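PROTEIN DESIGN WORKSHEET
SECTION A - STRUCTURE
LENGTH: 144
TOKENS:
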């Protein structure tokens, strides 16, 4: 059996303690990182405030919707806020081209959602915004 000089025992104990603490920290933070990543994959809805546009024949359209996302960054809310003019413009371009008959017929609701979704996604891509929208959910649609 090898004999260890007693003057090295405190140093050996310190090394063992540091390695043990480092291992504990590694495993504790590794599992926390996994949990944080899972939290970011939960569904989140970003509300787009009312948009009003004038239609032919002195009519108006009021629309509100939410952007549904399952993968997003911590700063996505701020990006959505910063690029709200792009979102609003895309919505006005899409909905302003629709015939009044389609706007007042509820059977076109899904088509409206898909049109808005596609146009916003295209505008984001054109402007270099790396946000993936899963769906657009119209929460209010009023034609007056």
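SECTION B - SEQUENCE
RESIDUE ASSIGNMENT:
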């Amino acid at each position: 059996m090898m004999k260890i000089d007693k003057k090295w025992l405190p140093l050996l104990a310190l090394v063992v303690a540091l390695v043990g603490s480092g291992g504990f920290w590694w495993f504790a933070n590794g599992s926390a990182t996994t949990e944080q990543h899972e939290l970011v994959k939960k569904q989140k809805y970003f509300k787009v405030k009312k948009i009003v546009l004038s239609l032919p024949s002195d009519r108006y359209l009021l629309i509100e919707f939410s952007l549904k996302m399952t993968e997003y960054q911590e700063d996505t809310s701020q990006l959505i806020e910063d690029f709200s003019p792009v979102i609003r413009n895309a919505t006005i371009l899409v909905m302003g081209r629709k015939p009044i008959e389609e706007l007042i017929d509820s059977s076109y609701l899904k088509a409206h959602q898909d049109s808005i979704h596609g146009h916003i996604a295209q505008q984001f891509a054109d402007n270099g915004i790396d946000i993936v929208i899963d769906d657009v959910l119209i929460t209010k649609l009023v034609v007056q």
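SECTION C - NOTES
The mean pLDDT is 84.
The chain has two domains: 6-40, 44-143.
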